Amino acid sequence: MSDHRAKSDRIAGLRPRYRKDLAGGTDRFFASRRTTCPWCGSERLAARLHTTDLLQHKPGRFTLDRCADCGHVFQNPRLTDEGLEFYYRDFYDGLGEQRMSGTFGGRTAMYRSRAEAMLPHDPAPKTWLDVGTGHGHFCAAARTVLPATSFDGLDFTDGVELAAREGRVAHAWRGAFPDLAPELAARYDVVSMFHYLEHSTDPDRELRAAHEAVRPGGHLVVEVPDPRSRYARLLGRWWLPWLQPQHLHLVPAANLRRRLTERGFTVVAEQHAEAHDPVDLLAAVWLALDRAAPREDAPWLPEPPGALRRGLRAAILLAGVPALASAALLDRFAVRPLAHRLGLCNAYRLVARRE
């Protein structure tokens, strides 16, 4: 059986469940709308972005609000646990597992850069826990920078168990970090959260868990999207780090620095250029092309697309190849050297020591 036929059969097998999930609409996937900022409690909120799911194209509309007092950006109304399960399903696992594993597996240089951020502060940590590790690709690459370090991974998906079977992590912790934190108390020299905190329903609870898991004198490394990036304004809904509906909280660096201090950490490094991922223009062009083209087959669609729609999609994407290539070149060679100076960095990284 061909790969295409096998995928089509797999999608057809999943379609009845999605049809049942969507029979009553998407309202049940959302909690009540907040009237106060979840970070500082201010009532001065304004809509920052209205968008749809631009990656999987699952049904639903999503709003990000911004607090006028502290600048915190958050999904409002937020997804419920049922909504999170629905929108995460078949993204990192299931149908999306092979695609996402290939995407994350090819980012070795970035993973090494993240590990190198620790060298000035602890050049030889014995134990490191990577929270939100996915399939453990960071840990595998970081071991080339820190060969004497034992890397464990934590995630709520079965990807972390795959990482252990593949030897990318020494030990796999599966579950919610705050729930596991008492078992991990003062166990690690370093805890990392790379593009994890923005997915959390309660970032402050995750920071408290990190304080519990890091030994006194150890370090926490946090990397998150920067909502103050100028790209967020210039590219609008096509800015990839909005990543709706998965990103629930986007925290400005000043806010996170203060909260870490309140939680018993001292921030010893703040990096912007080093955390920047030069893909903004490429991703924006791809998202726009993908949005303009007919949908490819997915189990949340009522029925698979016909030959005409598949052909039209292929033609649109093929016509967009020059634009994609140009955007990639601009990202890497024109914007990247100037990103920090121009305020275009799409992420920042903090290294904090537990006192």
Features:
355 residues; seven-stranded mixed sheet; four-stranded antiparallel sheet; 13 helices; methyltransferase; transferase
Give a verbal description of the structure.
The chain is an alpha/beta fold and 355 residues long. The protein has a single domain (25-277, 347-355), classed as Rossmann fold. 37% of the residues lie in helices and 19% in strands. The chain contains 13 helices and 11 strands. The chain has helices at 3-22, 81-88, 97-105, 108-116, 137-145, 159-165, 177-180, 203-213, 230-234, 253-262, 280-292, 307-319, 321-335; strands at 45-52, 61-67, 73-75, 127-131, 150-155, 172-174, 188-194, 214-225, 249-250, 265-271, 347-354. The strands form 2 sheets. It has a 7-stranded mixed β-sheet with strand order 6-5-4-7-8-11-10, with helices on both faces. Helix 4 (108-116) packs across helix 5 and helix 11 (280-292) packs antiparallel against helix 13 (321-335). It is globular, with a radius of gyration of 21 Å. The N and C termini lie far apart (59 Å). The mean pLDDT is 96. Its EC number is 2.1.1.-. GO terms for molecular function: methyltransferase activity. InterPro entries: SAM-dependent_MTases_sf (IPR029063).
